[in-house]
Amino acid sequence: MNYQKKLMFILMFVINGAVSQIVKSCTLPSDPDNGRYEVAGFPSAKPGDTLQYAMLNISCLPGYDMVGNQTLICLQGQWFGVMPECTNCGTMTEGATVPPWHVTIRSPQWNDGREFCTGSVIRRNLVISGMFVRLSQHHHHHHQQPITAHCFWDEQRARLRDIEYYIITISNQNGDPDGNLVTNVKFPEDFRGLQNYLQADIALVTTANPLLSDTVRPICLNSGHHRGRQLQDGRLGMVPLSLPSTKGFRRHHVLKTLPYISMAQCLDSISSSYPTFGGYLTYEKFCAGRQNGTTICQGNSGAGLMFPEAKGIVTRFYLRGVVSVSPVDMTKSCGISDFVTFTNVDFHGDFIKN
């Protein structure tokens, strides 16, 4: 028995048990933007109709991906779940150096190119990023020392920084130079900074105004979708990085290709070169990187590692990881290792959906 048949069975069972009760009707909602729905058992039903019960099977138009659950149920006038969004996610212009969902997070007082960290747009006014702590390396390459958080987490006070400290700007040239105010930052309950080795290093950032536009699109974020093919040893992903320039704090944007590294290989690299770093490779982290000088720099925390999937002539990018931490040399602004650890987005699917 498939999922929809199980839902219908449960639905009929509940209704048959409630026939003697006062019946409250269900008013059918509007179709989702760029999508439609069918009502199981009522093929001619349309938005605005009232029914004793309803199960909606929702679909998106060709070229659009669904963000949310495919099925909604209404019993006794109460809807269970929310209407999903149909979005043209994860597409970008060939040759682009900045994805259309990539954002910069900085202070309202900074207009000189400095930035705390970065993130990826996943909804109309929602960005996914990291809490971010980087590790420093002093004098001897077997000793890394932590320094304070550079993004949302105040390590000394063990709490979030004030949200008035941040604005979000679109990283491409068409972004709003004045930025978008941050109204809320949420993170998993088990995040405790360095206390638990940056476990659950992920954040959801809400903005005051919508981020999506003709030039700004969300990255695809379907938990588990294509994961088996994408997170395999050697499979190539891409991450947008902002690298230091020779002109003050100004930075230039590049798209770097990084292969996924198996947990065994990453642990071997850590144990041989950075033994004190091993604790930061928690269960919901994975590694990516290569031995060609590609690494992350200060301000790159929160950037999304994305993997392409082609369907017909359309290639979409799916978010799989958020830049978390890598060993760095405090005399430099960039990492010193051939790997970067990422927070695995799929492990936090419930947190993101809720």
Spell out the blueprint of helices and strands.
Layout: H1 3-17, E1 26-27, E2 35-39, E3 50-51, E4 53-60, E5 65-67, E6 71-75, E7 78-80, E8 85-87, E9 102-106, E10 117-123, E11 126-129, E12 135-137, E13 144-146, E14 153-154, E15 159-160, E16 167-170, E17 180-186, E18 203-207, H2 227-230, E19 236-244, E20 251-261, H3 263-273, E21 285-288, E22 304-311, E23 314-325, E24 327-329, E25 340-344, H4 349-353
Parallel strand pairs: 12-24
Antiparallel strand pairs: 1-3, 2-4, 4-6, 5-8, 6-7, 9-10, 9-16, 10-11, 11-18, 12-13, 14-15, 16-17, 17-18, 19-20, 20-21, 21-25, 22-23, 23-25
Keywords: Disulfide bond, Signal, Sushi
GO molecular function: serine-type endopeptidase activity
InterPro entries: CLIP_Serine_Protease, Peptidase_S1_PA, Peptidase_S1_PA_chymotrypsin, Sushi/SCR/CCP_sf, Sushi_SCR_CCP_dom, Trypsin_dom
Write a brief caption for the model:
By secondary structure, the chain is mainly beta. It has helices spanning 3-17, 227-230, 263-273, 349-353; strands spanning 26-27, 35-39, 50-51, 53-60, 65-67, 71-75, 78-80, 85-87, 102-106, 117-123, 126-129, 135-137, 144-146, 153-154, 159-160, 167-170, 180-186, 203-207, 236-244, 251-261, 285-288, 304-311, 314-325, 327-329, 340-344. Helix content is 10%, strand content 35%.
